[in-house]
Amino acid sequence: VLWSAGGSPAFKMSQHLKVVLMVLSLVMVGSLSSVWAKMVLDQLPMFTFLWLMVGSALVILLVYTFVIRRKKLPVAVLKRHGWKLLLIGLAFCFFYRVTFVYALSKLPVTTHAYVINFTGLVTMALSVIMLKEHPSRSQWAGGVLALSGVFVYFNELPDFTEVLALSVLCFGVLCLALTNIWIRQLSAQEDSGLSSTMLATSTIVLGSLPLVLFGLATDLPLIKITLFQWFVIVLNASVVLAFGLIIWSYALRTIRSYEASVLASSGVIFVALFSVPILGEAIEWFEWCGIVIMLAGLILMQKKAKAKAKKEKEKEVINEIV
Prior knowledge:
By secondary structure, the protein is mainly alpha-helical.
């Protein structure tokens, strides 16, 4: 609590807390979007849903960036970081989106969210190699604890279809973790010249064009799509892809890449709570136990990050990464 000049109390929220609340809000709305997407995927072809969602995100970001925000195309910046932006775009908008939607069409939505939450573990491992960010012993212990929850969650061996979907989704988790690392690297470079909005727009344009062009060439005319189905497609396009990526890249300027992923792990709780009334999915007691064990491990992984948040400045983090 800070006291203003007039003597009345004024509350000042730290930048770290603002980012945490932004990420959690994004995760909650994104979880509801995923549950509705699971419902729509039972009604529409997977590829139709996929390329319309990506195409909608592309249009939304182009309008927001160049019409509403009136940004200018940073040609020099794109030339300097073009390859990295292309890698992020392909990893996030192409490979991760394809694996995400395919696995969501084959798996229970709670299981789908459960597996995606291990992005934090993969990101932490990659950050050691690529960013030289070394977690503490307690964070590694938390990772092992979270991973042990898998053996509790999957009380029975999945069938072949689910094993295939899980394998595809694991590749998607790797792509998402690489996206976290590459965005963190670009965001931390003071001379990158890329705002969060331009970074998101550039990556989605570069990564989504193959899907959109292929969809336009092979999937027209469209089958009949209801108003609710269009709503779910656009909601996923705007929240999960367009503005979600802007918020995510902005968050990675303030907090570490694996810390952001760990905060996003709360999505499995929101998905579980939404899926019961909307989809009628039953969540077994051992699945809840597996979720609790995983979340306990992920919370333990944040111990050092929270303790250092008050002491570290963003400049020190940038210097460490660069």
